[in-house]
Amino acid sequence: MDMSSREIRMPLSEVVAVLQDLNEFVVSLDRLGSRQASGTADEYAVGKFIADWDVARRLARARRVISVALDAQLSEEDNAEIDALCDQGRFYGTDSAIHRSTDQTS
Known about the structure:
The chain has 5 helices and no strands. By secondary structure, it is mainly alpha-helical. The mean pLDDT is 89.
């Protein structure tokens, strides 16, 4: 499937909600990273942020919003291809992700 010219329509309210969440995560994680670099925060602070700000649920919601739009507007074959591409990501806790992260620190 040629994805470069395809467009997907989504309700603006849903796009804004996803962008708000993503912006909060990016800014907050950047601030946490700066605090860690300066020694005023540790790994616990990141875990606390993820738990307190309900990051996993909010990211899952963002994924669902996009998936619903894709499912409604693309063919079953196109969606299967996108699913296969997404399955190729790096996932924390898998052997390949662990090896990549340790390779980067060497």
